[in-house]
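Risk register update: the risk of archive-format incompatibility is retired. Evidence:
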Amino acid sequence: CNLYSRELSKNVSREIRKILTERASHFNIALDDVSITSLTFGKEFTAAIEAKQVAAQEAERAKFVVEKAEQNKRSAVIRAQGEAKSAQLIGQAIANNPAFIILRKIEAAREITHTISNSANKVYLNSDDLFIAT
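Archived output:
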């Protein structure tokens, strides 16, 4: 608010200097310098300036939230496109080579056995429990 008030004071001083110089010239008076020694604004005006600055900050914050939401939306779209492409490639792999499903089952079984082997509990499984059809 201080910076804005100083800038406004400069503008007011400049405008007063211009008006006084013009008026004095009508009376053949030349002003070398006009100096405003004290300038204060009313409480309502100061409150209005502060409210304007708060509103500008809130607008910037809202703009940031909107930009973040748009980035999240783009990210979700890109992620969905990647997953769709992955599903398409898996579908093509299955269509071209049915053994791909068996490979995926073996990979899943490997992950399950790794998780179980690191567990403190003891579990006994047969191949049917690991999704491996023989």
